[in-house]
Every structure is written in structure tokens, then in C-alpha cells.
Design a protein that fits this description.
The chain is an alpha+beta fold. The chain contains eight helices and twelve strands.
Length: 261
């Protein structure tokens, strides 16, 4: 949670400064609740130390339960960052036709703790994070921010959702392929979730400079493809008009609630 909060700041070009938290835990008077509280605090501490951000405020909500069952331990994290010049932030754009699309960081994902898995009653965990890689990834993106058209965290929904959200921003499609990782099938590669992954969109003329910075920060890069067209094509598993994605994005909740014809 700490890494995702600071990663989102980095994706707009802001340097993370600090976090605040709200820890939602069950009954700490029970051994399980006490262990969950202790491990949650330890995890936040480790992440803050690795990423160089202090906790400046927060609160704890204990004894949370539903129908007599303690809630899963949930750390809600907010983060604040700094931009030297707000006019030079990394914009929330799709990029331009012909722009290169890269995945920076880790391509290791799973569906056990994903939105996709939750819809199919799949829960496996915990999810591991390499905090050293996370720190290097965030430093790399900050170093490369002036070279980027766009940056998007691969978070809820996985790589497929991140790519769809990028395409929707300006209505620009893309022709892409999934990273080939041993042991990860196409479904998992498309909708699996995991930390330390950021999708980058950049002018091809700046690709060499971005790759040099990634190498200097010891951050892996995967070439996904290029922006362009009116379809989001992720070979060989997906081909959807960007207009249909935009419609699902704006109208999907209303339809699910029966409030859109």
C-alpha cells in the first residue's frame, strides 16, 4: 500500500515526501488480531525506510468485524509529493501515434490477490514485494520524467486495465504484446496484479535515453508495442475498439446498478 501510494505520485513526476495512514484491523486482544496489527506496522515501517518517506500522521481503527468475523487487515495509505514546476508534470495522456510503450520494473504478477481473482473466488497470498527494486523503479521514473509522454501504475486490474486506461485518456489505440514470462499464462499476464510495475509511453526518439537511465538504475524494461489506431490490440488475446472501452468505463457502473438504459 505504501509503495503503490508513492508510485502513483512518481507517475505524475512528483517526488514523494511523506505518508499518512489508517490501519483497519480486527480484535487486537486475540492472537490473530495482535499478529496482524504487528505485521502491518512492520510492513509499513519497512516500506517507508526503503522508499525514504516518513509517516507524519495517521490513526488506527480496531475491533472491526462483520457478522462476528474480523475484517482482513487493511492499511489505507495517503501520500503527498512535490513538483518543482507543476507545468512540467507527467500528463495523464495516451501519447501520440507511433509512441513506444514500455513496461518498467517487474513483470511478475498473479491473480491470487487481484480484482480478477476476487470475481472468481480465488484468493492466494500474501503478495511479495522487492522493496529494493521498488525504490530503484521510482528513482528511475523520476529521473526520466522529462522524457515521458505518460506513465501509469500497473495496479488494480493488472496490465490489461492499465493499458485500457491509457488508451481511453485521448482515444488513441495501441498494438501491443504481453511480456513473455515463464510460468505466467496470458490470462495472468493480462489481469494479474503485482507491485513494482509502471507502463511508460514515450517518443521513440527518446527511447535510447530512457533505456540508458533504466540500465543505470538497474530497472528491467519490456517493450510492449506502439500507440496508434482506434483499437486496443494486445496480441494474441484482445482486440477492442477504444470507443467501447471508454463506454464501459463511463457507463459500466450505472449499467450494473440498473441506472443506465
Amino acid at each position: 500500500a505504501v509503495a503503490e501510494a508513492t508510485r502513483n505520485l512518481v507517475c505524475v513526476g512528483a517526488t514523494p515526501l511523506a505518508i499518512t495512514d489508517c490501519l483497519n484491523i480486527g480484535n487486537p486482544e486475540r492472537p490473530k488480531g495482535a499478529w496482524e496489527l504487528t505485521r502491518t506496522v512492520a510492513g509499513i515501517t519497512a516500506a517507508c525506510e526503503a522508499l525514504g518517506v516518513p509517516v507524519v500522521s495517521g490513526n488506527v481503527s480496531l475491533y472491526n468485524a462483520t457478522h462476528g468475523q474480523d475484517v482482513w487487515p487493511t492499511a489505507t495509505i495517503g501520500a503527498i509529493g512535490h513538483l518543482d514546476d507543476v507545468t512540467k508534470h507527467v500528463p495523464a495522456r495516451s501519447g501520440r501515434p507511433g509512441d513506444v510503450v514500455l513496461l518498467a520494473g517487474s513483470a511478475q504478477v498473479g491473480i491470487g490477490a487481484s480484482a480478477y481473482g476476487a470475481q472468481r473466488a480465488i484468493h492466494e497470498g500474501p503478495v511479495a514485494i522487492d522493496l529494493a527494486l521498488e525504490a530503484r523503479l521510482q528513482r528511475f521514473v523520476l529521473a526520466a520524467r522529462d522524457l515521458l509522454r505518460a506513465a501509469h501504475d500497473r495496479d488494480a486490474g493488472g496490465l490489461g486495465v492499465a493499458l485500457a486506461e491509457i488508451a481511453i485518456r485521448d482515444g488513441v489505440g495501441a498494438k501491443l504484446t504481453l511480456p513473455a514470462i515463464r510460468g505466467i499464462d496470458r490470462r495472468v499476464a493480462l489481469f494479474g496484479e503485482g507491485p513494482s510495475g509502471i507502463v511508460l509511453v514515450l517518443d521513440p526518439a527518446r527511447e535510447a535515453a530512457v533505456r540508458a537511465l533504466a540500465a543505470a538504475h538497474d530497472v528491467p524494461l519490456w517493450t510492449l508495442g506502439v500507440m496508434g489506431g482506434d483499437l486496443l490490440e494486445i496480441a494474441p488475446v484482445l482486440g477492442v475498439p477504444v470507443s467501447a472501452l471508454a463506454d464501459a468505463h463511463t457507463q459500466g457502473l450505472g449499467r450494473a446498478l440498473g441506472r443506465v438504459a
